[in-house]
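Batch manifest, entry 17 of 40.
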Amino acid sequence: MKKISLLVLSAILAMSISAQDLGVESIVVKANVDTGWQKITNDTVLLNEAVYLGVIFKNYAGTPVSTTDSVSFGVSVNGISIGNLGAIVGKNLVPTAGFNTAEMMLKKDQIFSTAIASAKVCAWPIFWSKQNMGGSTANDTGCATYTIWDRVITVSNFTPEEGKAGTDITINGSYFGADPASNMVKFNGEIAVIKSATANTIIATVPSAAVSGNITVEASGKTGTSTEGFVVLDENGNPKNALSLADNQKISSFIGFSNNQLIISTGNTVSNLKIFDLTGKVVSSASDISSNTVHTHNLNSLQSGVYIATCGSEYFKFSK
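Output type: structure tokens
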């Protein structure tokens, strides 16, 4: 009886010794930047960005992890499973220190589709082709929490600030597409040809049909708009705005602008006065200005900037 008990005990010990103890050491999320895939260190991931999701795992029982092994992990985000990932022989598995630790790329895709302040990613081993994973030393499940935020395209500035059709404009901002094909640039709604692009700078050409107004950049389904308007000039160097002012006549009776007062001398017909900003928005106006008179229009409420006054078929560009 004692001999039988010893044999049973020996068998149990042998099984315990052969059992391996695979556990997740940490979660790895990488973003693709200009220099390649780089680990995210600030716990912030962009919404719908294709990311590298991986795990660093270790066999606490000491058996080396090999590139010929098949390993798979269960993965969840905020408790919701996104599947069992891995189990690829000789692919995306890199042994590291001591050869009983390895990093494995599980998925390279758009994993995070909702902008949330806290996305908890967890992974745990479910299969290893080499050994039985019956040990209990390892912390089998590893988790990491990330902030998922929606990228915002910004158009910070552009140079030069005015120009004729065919002029190359340098547009600076953030989260542009990394190449020309990934962006769309518009000058007040007119699509421009893009000569070059990086994530922060675009060089685009003023379209022939463009009129003065804001510059927009579209990339990855998002749009950024400049806060200042670009002034499109006609062949004579006069501004072209949304009213096609190039077809009008410059105000010959414009007297001046001083002390926040716009002063014009009207012609033989009654006209309406309109003041536009460089986006084509009416910011001030006066109706039925008498003919053959000097009219003074108060612009004290306007902010500093460049404006265009129209009166009948005439116009004048001025700065406040």
